[in-house]
Write a structure and sequence with these properties.
The protein is α+β, with helices and mostly antiparallel strands and 108 residues long. It has 2 helices and 7 strands. Strands 1, 2, 3, 4, 5, 6 and 7 form a 7-stranded antiparallel β-sheet that branches. The longest helix has 15 residues. The N and C termini lie far apart (50 Å).
């Protein structure tokens, strides 16, 4: 039986992770980037694999997700997107990656 929690690894040029979430009032919130020291791709790959095994990430789909986690290049380009299914998963990812609010749509 195949492992349904397995998520694809990030692309080879992924160096950091960041999150994005739509708030209940419709505004969008972008979070800071999290860079892994040493071998950035290995850090991204390990984190994505761990979260997938815990059920905290899934392959991006058209359905609803609480938030998304993006694997980004050194230039800030989004290379891959993973769905964060619920608030508990988001809180885990937020804490582990030491994310902070980068900007919120509609706030000055």
């Amino acid at each position: 039986m195949p492992d349904t929690r397995r998520v694809p690894p990030p692309p080879a040029d992924a160096v950091a992770l960041t999150a994005f979430r739509e708030l209940p009032d419709g505004r969008a919130r972008q979070y800071t980037e999290s860079w892994a020291p040493g071998n950035p791709w290995r850090g991204c790959e390990h984190f994505i694999r761990m979260c997938g095994a815990l059920g905290y990430l899934r392959e991006s789909a058209t359905g609803h997700a609480y938030a998304v986690l993006d694997a980004i290049s050194e230039h800030g380009d989004i290379l891959a997107t993973y769905d964060i299914p619920n608030a508990r998963a988001f809180q885990f990812i937020y804490r582990k990656l030491h994310l902070r609010v980068g900007e919120t749509d509609g706030e000055s």
